[in-house]
Amino acid sequence: MNEALLLDRQGRIAEAIAAYERVLRRWPALPNCWYNLGVLQRKTRQFSAALSSYQKALDRGVAQPEEVHLNRAVIYADYLRRDEAAEKELLRALALNPAYIPALINLANLYEDLGRRESALATYEKILAFDPNCLEALARYVNIKAFSTPDDPLIAEVQRALAAPRTSAAERASLGFALGRVLDSCGDYAAAFAAYAAANRASRSSAPAAAARYDRAAEERYVDQLIAAFPSARGASAAQLARPQPIFVCGMFRSGSTLIEHVLAGHPRVSAGGELDLLPLIAAKVLAPAPAAIATAAPQHLQALAAGYLETLAELFPGAEYVTDKRPQNFLYIGLIKLLFPGAKIVHTTRAPLDNCLSIFFQHLDHHMSYAADLMDIGHHYRQYLRLMAHWKGLFAGDIFDVDYDAFVRAPRPLAGELLAFLGLEWDERCLAAPPQGRAIKTASVWQVREPLHQRSSGRAQHYVRELDELRAYLEGLR
């Protein structure tokens, strides 16, 4: 057991798993070993094995079983897309410990993904009843609650929490983004921008030491390397299996990719894959160092990677004919996509630059997207994205379809028809229907996509003319 712990600390995960398996073959009644094995199997994406190990830990009386149920729920919800099973695990955790805040947070978040607003609100209220100082729950509660006036008492509560000395930078970030959303929705735009700016500063200061600040020169070098690695449309020999077929959706964050995925998922032949992490894993771990190793990969290697990708899709979405892979950063991997799947179709979502950049600034994004906390860094990243997309279109123009968000919300039917025709799909009226209750949407746009189509987000930058002067000049002439 000590050997396994040491191997884990050294990052030798496969060897640590083997050590735990040796222990458990001889002493199978050790619940903590089963739990630790499950943790490592989850790290290595052996999800079925991890679920089994966690269950064995539960069967053998592991301490704090509610934590094990929580871990099982995360696997079901985040990796296997089995939301009903995730909810059952969370409810089992709460049956054991009704005040277990991590399970309540995850349950509320699951209800948000599923569009069950009242259930989410009630769960956040339960958290705050157990722990009034759970500021993350307060921020999430405020973020999904409807407000009509900026003098609502709940807004004052958020402002008091923001001013409290005990509030951490991470909590100030969550509260600040929630406050900005409320003020923006109430039309108090100057105060909203100030709240968002403070939230971004707090987010940046709360980032772990390993999260690097955005480096504009490094970003430019990386785009240069991608362009150099794919100077032409290399003749790919990777075989594409019959099904499921991936449909790749990409673009800047907040450019309408979730909306377009919803439109596609309304078609009976298409399943919504959401923001899959399969391409980044291939690029970062299998074909490292990227991008040079991607461009020089052997055809047999590419065939194996393509087959592995499709096998994973088939496991996650059994019986699906088409599955969307809607990770916005897929625009970085278009060269890799075309090597793995020569016939792949890429749906590229676009939006008015100022609206797009402002929407990113107004969103609490992960620290690894370090550009998102500064307007001018966002503008720089936007320019590099356009430069790379221009290169990909020069190589693969016939396989990239641009969907303009602003044009789509004005007149969705003709553009949806063109998009389906591009993908070789027949028209289906369900593509323009609201997402059905129970379909999980695991992105920041979960609530916007569930509303009827509207144009409120188009031209949003007009409310922030003074605040966007510098960015407007920097992006002049772009579309």
Textual characterization of the structure:
This protein has 479 residues and is mostly helical. The protein has a domain at 218-474: P-loop containing nucleotide triphosphate hydrolases (Rossmann fold, 3-Layer(aba) Sandwich), CATH 3.40.50. Helix content is 58%, strand content 5%. The chain is built from 24 helices and five strands. The chain has helices spanning 2-9, 13-26, 31-43, 47-59, 65-79, 83-96, 101-113, 117-130, 135-144, 153-163, 169-185, 189-206, 216-229, 257-265, 278-286, 292-295, 299-316, 334-340, 353-361, 375-396, 405-410, 412-422, 446-450, 469-474, and strands at 245-251, 270-272, 322-325, 346-350, 400-404. It has a five-stranded parallel sheet with strand order 2-3-1-4-5, with helices on both faces. The radius of gyration is 23 Å and the shape is globular. 41% of the residues are buried.
In short:
The protein has 479 residues and is mostly helical.
**Terminal Cα separation, in Å?**
58 Å
Give me the side-by-side strand order of the main sheet: 2-3-1-4-5
* Poorly predicted runs: none
Report the CATH topology name of the domain at 218-474.
Answer: Rossmann fold
Count of separate DSSP helical elements: 24
Largest sheet: 5 strands, parallel
Tally of DSSP β-strands: 5
Helix content: 55-70%
What is the H level of CATH, i.e. the homologous superfamily of the domain at 218-474?
A: P-loop containing nucleotide triphosphate hydrolases
Succession of helices and strands: HHHHHHHHHHHHHEHEHHHEHEHHEHHHH
CATH class of the domain at 218-474: Alpha Beta
Query: How much of the polypeptide forms β-strand, as a percent range?
Result: 5-15%
